[in-house]
From TrEMBL:
Name recorded for this polypeptide: Magnesium-transporting ATPase (P-type)
Keywords carried by this UniProt record: Membrane, Transmembrane, Transmembrane helix
Transmembrane segments: 42-60
Superkingdom to which the source organism belongs: Bacteria
Amino acid sequence: MIANAAFVATLIFLALGFWSMHTLHFLTPWRSLIVHSYLKSIALYCALLFANILGLTIWIERKFFLRDTGRKLRHFDQEIHTGKNELSDEIRSRFGDEEGQ
């Protein structure tokens, strides 16, 4: 989930970067002055923007793609403990050991 969120956040961040470069093309003659004077501030802003976009994409993935996870896991747990399942012997032995303790 983190890898997908990082990928989506990177795409959004790059799209915003290209859009802002297109919008701010009139600042090209002063590029060296801007970079020399404000590089740390721009880098800090970009890092915070990326972190916020990453957090937003993680929140969206959790909100929409992990819906009803607890209900699904409870159903899976009930299947394991009732014995009405088609699990491998390895998984069955792990859960069988926990019940005996």
